[in-house]
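Thread: quick sanity check before group meeting

JM: Hey all, I'm pulling together slides for Thursday and realized we never actually wrote out the predicted structure for the chain we discussed last week. Dropping the sequence here so it's in one place. If anyone has concerns about the input, flag it before I start.
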Amino acid sequence: MQEGLASYLPEDKQDVYNNGRFANDNQISEIKRRIKAYTPWTFLAHVLYKQHLTTGQGNLNWIYKDASLEKTAYISPLAETTKNNPLAQFFRNYFIYSDQPTYKFYDFAIQLVWICLSIGLLLFFSRAQPLNQEVILVLALFGGLLFLQVFEGGKSRYLIQFIPQILVIAALGLDRLKEMPNLKFFPLKPNKTA
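JM (edit): ok, ran it. Output follows.
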């Protein structure tokens, strides 16, 4: 978007951030240009890309950086009192600050959890006729995804508000694994010979 807005300015001002690119005339011109360039295929690509950005990350787009690198003037008083605490620093480096090299372990593990939840969702929707109570969950989840697709979306962190529905639907889907006779992971009956 910013590159498109910069194209309405002289070349010598395009690299300066606060150069007037956000003027209403430039924004209206850019919106008209982008709408004119839309075709059904580019719109479909846009919708699929936005859906991927919304649902593609298991870490829910956690983007906290080291507090000393944040631009905001406010830093939590708790961060100041725990800055020398090794346990607090461990949690910050492994689970909170996404710019630390150790964060990749959490990021990988949570992505595996997200894949398991996705498998549960696929298994849930493999049943032809869900129960009435399940339909309410499905409508809540699809309504939320549709809302994100139309209005916000584009960031996985917006899914946090729909985690209860996702967890319940995925759990119901994973529960169907024991109904599959060829899978030996979940025995249907206890072993009577023991």
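AS: nice. The CA atoms of residues 2 and 153 lie 19 Å apart. The helical segments are 2-6, 24-37, 40-55, 77-81, 86-96, 103-124, 132-150, 163-175.
JM: adding both to the slides.
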